[in-house]
Structure formats: C-alpha cells, structure tokens
TrEMBL record:
<comment type="function">
    <text>Catalyzes the epimerization of the C3' and C5'positions of dTDP-6-deoxy-D-xylo-4-hexulose, forming dTDP-6-deoxy-L-lyxo-4-hexulose.</text>
</comment>
<feature type="binding site">
    <location>
        <position position="70"/>
    </location>
    <ligand>
        <name>substrate</name>
    </ligand>
</feature>
<feature type="binding site">
    <location>
        <position position="164"/>
    </location>
    <ligand>
        <name>substrate</name>
    </ligand>
</feature>
<feature type="site" description="Participates in a stacking interaction with the thymidine ring of dTDP-4-oxo-6-deoxyglucose">
    <location>
        <position position="136"/>
    </location>
</feature>
<dbReference type="GO" id="GO:0000271">
    <property type="term" value="P:polysaccharide biosynthetic process"/>
</dbReference>
<dbReference type="InterPro" id="IPR014710">
    <property type="entry name" value="RmlC-like_jellyroll"/>
</dbReference>
<feature type="binding site">
    <location>
        <begin position="46"/>
        <end position="48"/>
    </location>
    <ligand>
        <name>substrate</name>
    </ligand>
</feature>
<feature type="active site" description="Proton acceptor">
    <location>
        <position position="61"/>
    </location>
</feature>
<protein>
    <recommendedName>
        <fullName>dTDP-4-dehydrorhamnose 3,5-epimerase</fullName>
        <ecNumber>5.1.3.13</ecNumber>
    </recommendedName>
</protein>
<dbReference type="GO" id="GO:0008830">
    <property type="term" value="F:dTDP-4-dehydrorhamnose 3,5-epimerase activity"/>
</dbReference>
<feature type="binding site">
    <location>
        <position position="23"/>
    </location>
    <ligand>
        <name>substrate</name>
    </ligand>
</feature>
<comment type="similarity">
    <text>Belongs to the dTDP-4-dehydrorhamnose 3,5-epimerase family.</text>
</comment>
<feature type="binding site">
    <location>
        <position position="58"/>
    </location>
    <ligand>
        <name>substrate</name>
    </ligand>
</feature>
<feature type="binding site">
    <location>
        <position position="117"/>
    </location>
    <ligand>
        <name>substrate</name>
    </ligand>
</feature>
<keyword id="KW-0413">Isomerase</keyword>
<feature type="binding site">
    <location>
        <position position="28"/>
    </location>
    <ligand>
        <name>substrate</name>
    </ligand>
</feature>
<dbReference type="GO" id="GO:0019305">
    <property type="term" value="P:dTDP-rhamnose biosynthetic process"/>
</dbReference>
Length: 181
C-alpha cells in the first residue's frame, strides 16, 4: 500500500499494491499495524456498506459528538467523493477536497474525525465500504448542505432533475450555521 498526502491536512490517499495473475488479483485492503504507522493511530469499531444508483448524492455528513474518522473505498462503480474540513483550528478549515474513487482505481480515502463527508455516484450504481472510528450516533448527525455556495464544491452533476437525495440531505444546514469541531 502506498500513502500520499492531499492539500488538506491529515486527509490521505491510499493506493493498493495489486498482485495480479491468471486467476485474477489479490490485494490487502487494510492492515492495522501499517495504518497506525503510516496514516493515523486509530481503531476502527464499525464498518458500513451502501449501494447507490446513478445520480445519488449522500452528504455532507458528520457527527458533532462521537465524530467518526472514516476509511472509504468503492467496491463497485465510481463516485465523486468530497470532504470538508470542519476543524476550526485547522489551517484548512472550511476547505474541500474531492477525488474520484472507483472499484477500478482501488483508491481509499482516509477522512479524519472533524470532517464532513459525502459523495455523488457517477456510474450506473456504486457500492461503498467504509470503516469508522466511532459508532453511529444518529442523535449527533449533522448534514451540511451539499449545494451551499460557501463550499463551492464543483459537483459533476449534469441534470439536477435526476438528483437523488435523502430528506435529511435536502434540508442540510448551511455551512455558516454548522457545528464545528
Ligand atoms: C450511517 C448509518 C445509517 N444507519 C441506518 C439509518 C437509516 O435507516 C439508514 C440510512 O441512513 P442514512 O440515510 O444516514 O445513510 P447515508 O446517507 O448513506 O449516510 C452515510 O453517508 C455517508 C456520506 C457517510 O459519510 C456516512 O458516515 C453516513 O453518514 O441506515 C445505520 O443503521 N447505521 C449507520 O451507521
């Protein structure tokens, strides 16, 4: 596995080492010792999987208490993945980072606690798997409005009519009114 930095402090991209042969491929998707040494010294306590159809946007989510660090990867299809730094003392506070994650490129994104995270599906469907450093706590959920112009996220959306959003995400909080870390 190879790790690279991003313009946002502590957000990291992990690139797998793939062993291909006539049977197919093999790669290690996670190693606790390597992750602690090269990425972040954290423990993961929950893993999630979601399937989303084309045009789905989920985000921008965080938990204001029990904040979750997330290690995100795509196991089928492709998404435009976005994180926002909500850590007030951070030099990159309020800044976004975007990346294409796909089953094909095998990239994983490390999103530390204190970030809002979301994605938009750019293939016919996409399945995400992500590990979290804290448990789901719906009472602390916050959805920052994906389309808030303060965030200036350049979503690759062609047709707003076909956008699939949850009620919670349609009514997300504006960035200026959000709870920060
Ligand atoms: C996130 C989550 C949801 N659920 C349930 C609640 C609800 O009935 C159903 C769907 O929940 P949501 O609509 O919140 O799912 P979703 O919009 O996919 O939420 C996820 O979005 C991405 C962008 C993230 O970063 C995640 O942390 C998480 O917030 O699943 C759990 O049981 N455990 C969980 O950890």
């Amino acid at each position: 596995m190879k790790v690279s930095s991003t313009p946002i402090n502590d957000v990291k991209i992990l690139e797998p080492q793939v062993f291909g042969d006539k049977r197919g491929y093999f790669w290690e998707t996670f190693r606790d010792d390597w992750f602690r040494e090269h990425v972040a010294d954290v423990s993961f306590v929950q893993e999630n999987q979601s399937l989303s159809s084309r045009g789905t946007l989920r985000g921008m989510h965080c938990q204001t208490q029990q904040p979750q660090g997330k290690l995100v990867r795509v196991i089928s299809g492709e998404v435009f993945d976005v994180v926002i730094d909500l850590r007030r003392p951070s030099p990159s506070f309020g800044k976004c980072f975007t990346i294409q994650l796909s089953a094909k490129n095998g990239l994983q994104l490390w999103v530390p606690p204190g970030f809002a995270h979301g994605f938009y599906v750019t293939s016919s469907s996409a399945e995400l798997v992500y590990k979290c450093t804290d448990y789901y706590a719906p009472q602390f959920e916050q959805s920052v409005l994906w389309s808030d112009t303060d965030l200036a996220i350049n979503w690759p959306i062609n047709d707003k009519e076909t956008l699939k959003l949850s009620e919670k995400d349609r009514n997300g909080v504006m960035f200026k009114d959000a709870i920060f870390f």
